[in-house]
């Protein structure tokens, strides 16, 4: 894994939580959204992140059969909302310092 990729994994997690706070997300859709923000994320990166966020209690999962394939939809949990709020405060502090 490249140093740049390691560096931005935290940002990707925050993007996922933010998107999941607005509406349900699924792997391909979140990859497309991240691409709009300049993150080129492969399925081998995004799905382990989604699974870990779900395992840690930040996302819930709902499965739906779409044309014979199971699609997993993710939505933020109350625990995810709390960590997103904390992240927003820290991001604001960081921006204030870095952009000084």
Question: What would the keywords be for this entry?
Answer:
100 residues, alpha+beta, 2 strands, 16% strand, globular
Write the topology of this structure.
Blueprint: H1 3-22, H2 27-36, H3 43-55, E1 59-66, E2 69-76, H4 78-98
Antiparallel strand pairs: 1-2
Strand content: 15-25%
Could you say how many structural domains there are in total? 1
Backbone CA Rg: 14 Å
> What share of the residues lie within helices?
55-70%
Q: Describe the sheet with the most strands.
A: 2 strands, antiparallel
Structure description:
By secondary structure, the protein is of the alpha+beta class. The protein has one domain: Winged helix-like DNA-binding domain superfamily/Winged helix DNA-binding domain (Arc Repressor Mutant, subunit A), CATH 1.10.10.10. It is 64% helix and 16% strand. The chain contains four helices and two strands. The chain has helices spanning 3-22, 27-36, 43-55, 78-98; strands at residues 59-66, 69-76. Strands 1-2 form a two-stranded antiparallel sheet. α1 (3-22) packs across α4 and α2 (27-36) packs across α3.
């Amino acid at each position: 894994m490249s140093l740049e990729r390691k560096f931005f994994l935290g940002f990707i997690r925050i993007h996922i939580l933010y998107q999941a706070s607005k509406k349900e997300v699924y792997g391909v859709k979140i990859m497309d959204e991240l691409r709009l923000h300049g993150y080129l994320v492969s399925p081998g990166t995004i799905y382990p992140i989604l699974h870990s966020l779900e395992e840690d209690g930040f996302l819930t999962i709902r499965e739906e059969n779409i044309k014979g394939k199971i699609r997993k939809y993710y939505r933020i949990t109350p625990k995810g909302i709390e960590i997103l709020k904390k992240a927003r405060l820290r991001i604001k502090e960081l921006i204030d310092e870095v952009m000084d």
